[in-house]
Design a protein that fits this description.
55% helix, 5 helices
């Protein structure tokens, strides 16, 4: 039979060795651990983000600005209407970078 190992018990001596902080230090430590969640963009903000993105990238695809509305409807229909998915959505539409 295998020997059973007893779990390590915390004694007052080992607990005293733990790091002690003042109230201000502990508040600062907890505040440094906090990472705020990003606020989701609404549809108008996503549309504006795409307009700005397409304005700066349309020459890379060799297209004019007239295609913007069709691209936006495609991105919206395929669920790629978030800024991090714009390039994948344009590739899904069938456009490839010229330059």
């Amino acid at each position: 039979m295998a020997k059973k190992v007893a779990p390590k018990q915390v004694t007052p001596v080992t607990a005293a060795k733990s790091i002690e902080m003042t109230l201000e230090q502990s508040k600062a430590y907890r505040a440094s651990l906090h990472v705020p969640a990003p606020k989701p963009m609404n549809e108008v903000q996503r549309r504006e983000a795409f307009r700005v993105w397409w304005t700066s990238h349309k020459k890379k695809y060799g297209k004019s600005g007239k295609l913007e509305l069709a691209l936006w409807f495609h991105l919206k229909a395929t669920g790629m209407d978030h800024p991090e998915k714009f390039e994948a959505g344009i590739f899904n539409f069938g456009l490839k970078k010229v330059k």
